[in-house]
Design a protein that fits this description.
The chain is an alpha/beta fold and 233 residues long. It has a single domain, classed as Rossmann fold (3-Layer(aba) Sandwich), CATH 3.40.50.150. Helices cover 28% and strands 27% of the residues. Strands 5-4-3-6-7-9-8-10 form an eight-stranded mixed β-sheet. It has a two-stranded antiparallel ribbon with strand order 1-2. β8 and β9 form a beta hairpin. The protein starts with a strand and ends in a 7-residue tail after the last helix.
């Protein structure tokens, strides 16, 4: 499998369970915080989101964690061949094992399938099934690791949004921005981009449509978001 080339970096992902895809690029381009110094990417995979964060936030120090050996090894190889290697660290570890550090921005494209959804591939199931990272544990640790004015951003299927908001509230995290993502104007919302924080505010609401009614014809809204990354933008 060839590397996936972006404007300022390239990603090898042949040994990763989850390949470079739209969800990862969306959260990497959208997740935001005013001048984050420390960033954590939970379930980093190939390291895609870390490289996007490094490109967007030139003063940041970024940590990517994952629990799969092959995945972390490939992320580390990507780090060596790309820019920003001095600001990015990849570590094989469980989220539950991290403590005594705080982050301004935490980002995740988390596993969201339950254990009944199996692909037949153990590595892929590890990356996709939430028994490897239950949502309640995710929010408890985010609450512990997030700075007072920090942001936690994630992308999830629309149908589990209410569950995530409920669990977040139990961990003293509150929805601050919510973007409904549609493939095209005629399709239903499939994904939600969510930003949580420790302050209760009136959340910003919006919609992002990726394509027009024509296949591979992208909306100006989507092109504006990913302009600094995709070669075609």
């Amino acid at each position: 499998m060839p590397d996936f080339h972006f404007k300022q970096f390239s990603i090898a992902h042949d040994r990763c369970a989850m390949k470079v895809g739209t969800d990862g690029v969306l959260i990497g381009a959208w997740a935001d915080h005013q001048n984050p110094v420390t960033i954590l990417d939970i379930g980093t995979g190939s390291g895609l989101i870390c490289f996007m964060m490094a490109q967007r936030f030139p003063d940041s120090i970024i940590t990517g964690i994952d629990i799969d050996d092959d995945t972390i090894e490939q992320a580390q190889e990507n780090r060596q061949k790309n820019r920003w290697s001095d600001r990015i660290t990849f570590t094989r570890t469980n989220l539950s094992d991290i403590s005594s550090v705080r982050f301004d921005l935490i980002v995740s494209n988390p596993p969201f399938y339950n254990g009944t959804n199996t692909s037949g591939n153990a590595q892929r199931d590890l990356a996709r099934q939430n028994n490897s990272l239950p949502p309640a544990l995710l929010f408890n640790k985010v609450d512990e690791l997030l700075n007072k004015n920090g942001s936690f951003c994630c992308i999830i299927p629309r149908e589990i949004t209410e569950e995530y908001e409920t669990l977040a509230n139990k961990s003293n995290l509150y929805i601050q921005e919510k973007i409904a993502v549609k493939g095209n104007p005629d399709k239903e919302v499939k994904r939600m981009l969510l930003r949580f924080g420790k302050q209760q505010v009136i959340p910003k609401l919006g919609t992002l449509t990726i394509e027009t009614t024509k296949r591979h014809e992208y909306t100006n809204q989507y092109l504006s978001l990913i302009n600094e990354f995709y070669l075609f933008a």
